[in-house]
Each structure stands twice: as C-alpha cells, then as structure tokens.
Amino acid sequence: MESEFLKQTSLISYSKKSYEKSCYTSISDVILTNTTPSTEWLNTYGLAFREIFKKIIANNKLDDFLIKLFMDKEHSNKVILLNDLVFISTRVLKTESRTLDSEQMFFIISSGFLWSIQEKDGDYFNWIRERIENNKGIVRRKKADYLLFLILESIVDNYEDTYQKNAELSATILEAENIKPTPEFTAKVEKRKQELFNFKKATLSLKDTIIKLEKIKINDFDIKYFSELKEQTNNLISNIDFELQELESKINLIFSIQGHRLNEVMKTLTILSVIFIPLTFLAGIYGMNFEYIPELKIKYGYFILLGIMVLVTMGAVWYFKKKKWF
C-alpha cells in the first residue's frame, strides 16, 4: 500500500527563483510545513490510503481532527478551519465524456503548502503545472492561496468550456425547427435537462465552497482572489437556468402540439358524427318493420328520402363552415 501511495503522489516545490518536481521514496519524506521559503504542492491520486494519511498527519503534527475527516467515507461539501490550515471537501465533475461522472476531492491548505487529494487518476491542472515550471505569470511569486485559486478556477473554466460545447451540440439537435412531438425528441430533451442538473449541482457545490473560503482567516492566506470565482459560478448558473427554461418551453410546446393534434382529430370525428347521426336516425325510422308506414306507399318515397338526407348533410356542412369549425 505504501509503495502504491508513493507511486500516486508527486511534489512540486517552487518559489520566485526556484522550481523542483519530485516524487517521494518514503512516507517519512512527506513534510508539510510553513517554515520553508518555498511553496509546496503535494498531489495524491486515490482515497484508499487512509492509514497512510493518518501517519502523515501524525508525522507532521497536524490537527488530529483531520484523521476523523479522512476516516469518513461520505463527505458533503465542507470548508473547515483547523488551527493554521484549512480542510476542503468537494465533489468535482469529470467531463472527459458526455456521460458525466464525478469524483471526490480534498484539499489541505496552509500558507506554505497545498495537499490536493483526488479520487481518480488524471485531472485538468496541467496548465498550472506548466506555468509553475516555466515561471509564467505571477504564480511563482504567490503562495498556496493563489495556487488554490488557480485550481478552483481551472475547475470552473472546465465546467464552462464543457457546458458551452454541449450547449452547441444541444442547440443543433433541439433547435426550434426540429421540434417534433415524438418520444425520441422528448427523450433528447430530458437527457439534456439531466446534464444541466448535474452541471448546476456541481457548480452550486463549488460556489458554496468559494463562499465559505471567503470567510476564512488564517495567517498569510489572502481571500481576495475568490470573489472573481464566485462571479464566474454565478454566470454559469444563470446560463444553465436560462437553458433549462428554454428546454421547459420546448416540452410545453410539444404538449401543446400534441393537444392541438388531438383536438383536430376529435373535431373531425365530431363533425362526421353530427353529419351521420340524423342520416342514421332517418334510416332507422324507415328501416322499422311496421306494416303501415304511409311514406312507403309513395311511388317516389325512396328518392324523396335520399333527397332529404342530402339536404340534411349539405345543411350541416354549410352550418359548420359558417361557424368556421373547419
């Protein structure tokens, strides 16, 4: 288990004038402290190393409450202040495919270090690693608070990019001229709504984390960066809500089209019924087996009855047209 942990863990140590990327050879080498002049970014893939997490916490004399937090198997969105560090728990969407998945992420951050723990291998933080390595921007002149900001910004940007990409595909498939009251079209709309609900849930969770971070007060931890992230999440949530309203309108339009078609069918059937009911009545009267029906003795009674039927039909049709029923 220890060798697997070391394999899944890496360290980036940087300052304004230095950069070093390395891996650990022993658990005892994992040192989390604010006393070094450099900022350290420790990253681990996998949540199954709970016993090793306990050793690292004990070796570095971190708050014992972290052990309890790591032992919990189910985590809601949390931002907990512990002495001179912060524990953050959040769920992040994995957006590599249209089938959206999620993973648990933990952050332990202080002024001089950031330990990020991800449930699954792979992430979209490589651009941050490249900026640190190549000394681009201001990241190497900042501390761990700015690094956390960049990581959270990367998550938000990934949500926005994936949302926009899927929104373009959705707009093509679900555009107004393609609306059809069929089970297939309705299923596409419901699938897109589920995607949006997943995005909204993840974004709201991230927004809640950012709002909590804005209230954190520890030494050398600047919260000014997170207000911009809150605005980004607000904009994304607004866009999602707007598209949800559009999809709801399309569903309502489908129901309206179905209702209109049903009304047209019922109107046609009703008109035909009204036309043929009097004809059926006349046929029924003269089809009765009574011996004395005076009209039967008239030489042209059959043709007279047919004429009456024609007149009744023409009268009904004229009346319906006058009322603009068809």
UniProtKB/TrEMBL annotation:
The chain crosses the membrane at residues 269-288, 300-320. InterPro entries: CorA_cytoplasmic_dom, CorA_TM1_TM2, MgTranspt_CorA/ZnTranspt_ZntB. Keywords: Cell membrane, Ion transport, Magnesium, Membrane, Transmembrane, Transmembrane helix, Transport. One of its GO terms (molecular function) is magnesium ion transmembrane transporter activity. Signal peptide: none annotated. Belongs to the CorA metal ion transporter (MIT) (TC 1.A.35) family. CDD domains: TmCorA-like_1. It is found in: Cell membrane. It is a multi-pass membrane protein. Its main location: membrane. This is Magnesium transporter. It comes from the Bacteria. Pfam families: CorA. Mediates influx of magnesium ions. Alternates between open and closed states. Activated by low cytoplasmic Mg(2+) levels. Inactive when cytoplasmic Mg(2+) levels are high.
